[in-house]
Amino acid sequence: MGRRGDGRARLGGFTRTELAAVVLVLMVLGVAVWAVVERTGEPRRTWGCQRRLKELGEAFLQYARERDRALPAGVVQFGERESSWDRELARLWGLGGDEGDLEKVADRFWCPSDREPRADGRPRSYSMPMYELRTEGWPPTRRSEGGVGLYLDEERVRAAREWDPTLGDGVPEMRVGMIPSPADTALLVERVAIRNVLGRATFACILNAREQWGARTLERDRFHNGRFNYLMVDGHVERMTERAGGGHTGEGGVWTLRPDD
Prior knowledge:
The structure is a single chain. This protein has helices at 16-66, 85-92, 99-104, 133-136, 154-163, and strands spanning 10-11, 14-15, 75-78, 81-84, 126-131, 149-153, 186-190, 192-193, 205-206, 213-214, 228-232, 237-240. The protein has 261 residues and is an alpha/beta fold. The chain has one domain (14-255). Strands 3, 4, 5, 6, 7, 9, 11 and 12 form an eight-stranded mixed beta sheet that branches.
């Protein structure tokens, strides 16, 4: 029967109105499913970031166990040496630490939520909170306001030797025993920026939370749903806002060695 008396056309047993209603329902369901997928995608990437940070934490602790509890320096640009904490961990894994070797383990240093393109090289999504040897003095005390990452260049090593003559011709090392509260002190923080590139000294250390976000193509509020992951010296990972981490002022909280921050 082609038409009814009310003028509504039937197609395969359905009127056009009924078909339109079905299509509309399917479109609504599709939008709802897509929204759920989008919401679950970022938590999954956030969890992947936490897992990688925990693996890096295990590597840092292994490094410390093999070197009298010393952590790798964040940056070394001293004499003929040039290195960064990611290169040192690559050497721990039996690799040479050059760019070719780092390519083999590049994903270990990358957060799945960090999709900011790098101009040159593979992304490194993390950075060590920096201890400023020129102003903090050496060795650190319970009142020190710096982080765990040493930046060892000519000027800073010279300053450390002036602060601590017992160093002689040696260089300072941040040891786990110097950190009063390992569970409350950040070892790595997320740093999403176009210049944070695997194996480079630039951006391997970070001074405060204002430097964490340098992305141009990502929405900050959608990255980990507005929070950052922090790897603590004892190896556990916390996800928190900058304010909760004490980094909203650029000082304090998990960013410093001070146990009462």
